[in-house]
Amino acid sequence: MTSKLSSDNERVSIVSIVDKYSPLHEFKCILRGKGHSTEKCTNATLEEYSESHHRRFSAAVFHCDVEQSEEPDTVSLVADGQQTPANILPIISESHPKRTFTVCVSPLHSRYSKAYQLVEMVEVNLLLGADHFFFYNYSTNWNVDAVLNHYQSHGLATVLQWPLPAVLQDDNQTEPIHYYGQIAMLNDCLKRNHGASRHVIFHDLDELIIPNSHKSWKDLLNSLPANMSAYMFRSSYFHLEWPDVESNSKLVNKIAKRYKANSFLKQYREERVFSPNTRSKYLVDPLQVQSVGIHRVWAFRDRGRQYFVPPNVALVHHYREGILERQNSRLKDNSTLKFIDALNQIEETWKLLPHIPLGPIT
């Protein structure tokens, strides 16, 4: 759970995961001042996020009202009738943005061990303008842990452990919560970056948001309509089963192949571009967005607006493996070659991790 004080200091929001089968329906918030000098109890209002996919457990947010004269430091969420709180959460307050572009990455799970993919994603995004990354670790292998520790030690990453007791088998379905609590994770990351980052980008490990002609996200945004709360990017598949493109570049032939940098090896994508809000990913102003989903923004603050970026301007490159859904025509797309300098950084990173397997580890 994450607790966040709103910009107007009128309420604390707690991102949570709730059990729809639980007999507990009424909750209260215990708000404490610094050093527990003061304590106040208020009612908690529950708001369930969209996209629960009819599972037993769903992402939700509890809202606790705060008087403007108060500056709470911690909060506890307790069921009505309970006396002793089982949690004490620090409250993250608004601050002046210290980052321009922060990337929130979907949960790492299933003993994730594709360290090569992780390094590629980080290094390409750094070249695009990323300042920091948030990773939510449900289950990773030791080689990925080493890479995460490397980026964390350099101040480039925040790694949050994401233990989900809800992700257990039950009598009715194998996943009582959708995709390792992704909706809770996305909204947790959104709220953590309220006031801390000017822009927040959301995508998966096997995706990149690539401008077609601009050389950075900053340049891209400067070319788009201003004052938007969210910029939505449509998606297309780059199938990993398709052959690598032969290149005249020594960097591609040497480094990309050595370190499995698929964004430089796979230069063909499906001609099909998914429609808006279907597999789309997005870049938002976190102060203007209330809640997000996997492929869309669900709610804005103060009549916020979104803009769908034309796919010939920027596109989500989804480097997808698995059986092809259907035989789709393909076309060449070498827009990532503008960022070929990332290959040098990929190589330098791996030189600092000489005994770490690229993965996957089976």
Automatic annotation (TrEMBL):
Query: Can you tell which superkingdom this protein's organism belongs to?
Result: Eukaryota
Checking Pfam families in the record gives: Glyco_transf_92
Give the primary localization class: membrane
What does the record say about its membrane topology?
Single-pass membrane protein
GO cellular-component terms in the record? cytoplasm; membrane
Q: Name one GO molecular function term.
A: glycosyltransferase activity
Class of this enzyme: transferase
Q: Where does the record place it? A: Membrane
Q: What is its EC number?
A: 2.4.1.-
- Identify the InterPro entries for this entry: Glyco_transf_92 (IPR008166)
User: In which family does this protein belong, per the annotation?
Assistant: Belongs to the glycosyltransferase 92 family.
- What name does UniProt use for this protein? Glycosyltransferase family 92 protein
This protein's species is: Magallana gigas
